[in-house]
Amino acid sequence: MTDTSKWDGAFAKQENEDTRIPSLTEYRLLGSTGLRVSPIAFGAGTFGEKWGDAWSTGKEQGRAIFDRYIEAGGNFFDTSDVYQFGESESWLGEYIEDAGIRDRLVISTKATQNQSVNDPNGGGNGRKHIIESVNESLQRLKTGYIDLFYLHHWDQITPVEEVVMTFDQLIKEGKIRHYGLSNFPAWYVSKAHTIAQQRFLNPVSAIQNQYSLVARGDDAEYLPMCQNLGIAYTAWSPLANGLLTGKYQVNDEGELTGAGRLTEAWATDPSVANLATKEKVAVIAELLRVSKETGHTPCKLRLTG
What we know:
2 domains; 14% strand; TIM Barrel; single chain; 7-stranded parallel beta sheet; AKR_Detox_Biosynth; 305 residues; alpha/beta; Probable oxidoreductase; NAD(P)_OxRdtase_dom_sf; globular
């Protein structure tokens, strides 16, 4: 998660720039809200077993990772109803309930995809599906409210007014505290935000888009939009599904080598589907060169640079 007022790269830099990873307790305000969140959110996509072994931490290792993040002061978790087909929310809800620290944490989740058979309203961003999705996520997460609820994708159908009014209603009912839009066109986000302000409704608090060294498409439009409208920008796949962690290399034939889901399973990030393009090879090579020269891991460089 980033504070758009200090934007510079995949994560906002500290005023006193150094090479350390930002502390999870250096909390940032979420856009124009009063909600304080850790600078690095924990993406819970590997909590669950329904996507296969390459995408699963395992139940007990997942709990250990959860505990370590909490011990380090982290308070911001991100998931979705489609992650592991709902199992991610269920595992996360179980970990939080067992830890007994729900009110200390900020939970964001998402919905749009249709996971229902023969139900035309089982997906999309209409009022019916949004309300049902929120209620189902509340049950799986074992909580009475969701801090930040995103629409996962633009359905290209639902009027923006319906989306804004539905979320405003859910906030007033206490089921969610804030709402956001993920993978939406910038014009749609701006329109939703403007309509909410004009009608004295709750505005868009955050967006969540793909951003990394190999996916810089948001620099020109989304980041200036967020800065000017006071909307938080949260990046998904800032390490490009692990491509930028240093565990992968590119051989002389331009093929990706190294163990991980990019060579063994599948990626959620379309921009890294063709992994060994000339541009990506150049990025990986330079990242590895700087890593060797500075003595810092590629992952650490990405979180501080």
